[in-house]
Amino acid sequence: MRIISENPLIFVDADSADEISVHFRSTYHQVMESFKRINHPCVTLNDIIEEDSAITYGIVQAGDHFDNGVPMLKVTNFLGGRRLNDGPFELVNPTLAAKFKRSKLKEGDILLSIRGSVGKIAYVPKRLEGANLNQDIAVIRLADKKDNDLVALYLESDLARLQMTLHTRGAAVQGINLKELREVKIPVLSKEEKQCIQDRYELFRALEDKTSPRIDSIAAELKCLTGKHIDTAFASELDLQRFIGIGSNKIFLANSDADRLDISANHPDYTKLVNQIKASPNSGSLSGLVEASEERFNPDDHIGQEIQYLAIGDIDGISGNIIEPQIMLAEDLPSRARRLIHAGDILVGIAGASTGTENMVVFPVTREQEGWVATTGFLVLRPRDGVDIHYVCSLLKAPFVLRQIRALLTSPAMPTISDTDFMQLAVPVTNSDARKTTLIEINRVLKEERQLTIQLEQISEQIEQVLSEAKSNIFDLLDDDKFSAISARAMVIENAMGKIEEALQ
Questions:
Q1: How far apart are CA 91 and CA 104, in angstroms?
Q2: Among the four residues 47, 111, 248, 346, which has the most C-beta atoms within 10 Å?
Q3: Is 308 helix (H, G, I), strand (E, B) or coil?
Q4: Contact between residue 223 and residue 318 where contact means Cβ atoms under 8 Å apart
């Protein structure tokens, strides 16, 4: 075995140096070409740190947790946006922390992950002054704190990351050692150039700050609007323009003769809605559309057989997709694994925190799940003749039905609706033509929602791309033409946002 290079250290068995480290030589070439394009003198990262400080990592062996000890930061404490979370932090013995005084943190220090996920950045806030860190993080304390943002931005750029990549080693857990980190080259910029880069980058970062909340707001408004349109489609089956809305008045239960004494089941938000539905000649209960399956699975009849088992948590309540089915021997199934399901059935989660919410599991069973076993936390519904399974699934996710379910839940610790209450939910019970018309309208509304959601996702991705491009090549921000090109793309994004907002008016 031969040593071809000591920086980084490369061991090879190849007969020729030309055969070694293609990735290293390619990356090195990129770095050299980048410095040529920038055409600025350079200093090392170690040249710009505070006197009497050092670029160093922290505690190597923390020992046992020490109550009321010194917080020791880990890479898991890093958040996005150069922030640190609020813990929990590992606490170490103050005597041990005192032995690592060079890594004792001060407000404004730059932290850089150097092992595992190399290159993550965070600032030390005042609340964590005096804390320490572990060996996976390096602390960088600049002589001029006014350069903190620019240096942090540079360390996140392609040029700095390429230099760190040159010296990142390790198969299972990659890392860069402190010697190479200290030698990372940084172009020397004038005060005007520094300000130009920071100001121009800030424009794109501000775009993200401004647009992200707008995207979240539009998505929430879109979801609400879709729910209203779906409710309107079902209300039309009842010859209603809309369902009675939710009020904000407090009520006191005074009728001791009520079937149920819980306030939610006697609240006007629920009783007025149900009375409105029942007043229509086209109304009925859910049992008019589906029947509850009583078919049970007996594990004693299948000893030694592998069984596909579905628990409520195995199905994503938002997408309706199976996350991962469980496969186990019949004799190992939990006692709640007793519902036998068939293609064409509908699984509905009637117990758990998501019951009565948009995330409530409503899953149409396909041929792929024929003969599987489900938990008794599901109610298994079978549509009656002529009732479309997709119509029922849409109905059970409709806001006016979810309102009824929430009103009838019992047990705050494990919210549950009884099979009887569920089957008596007030819904339209009409003919197949009316249901078909409703389903067509619902599918149209959902298609529009998906299209707008895709547009929002694309805008979000485009914002990330613009910010990533600006961050990756920060020296391009000194080029007016390149800056103008990125700015034009940012303007297109803002215009697209405006069009979506107009479409929702």
A1: 14
A2: 111
A3: strand
A4: no
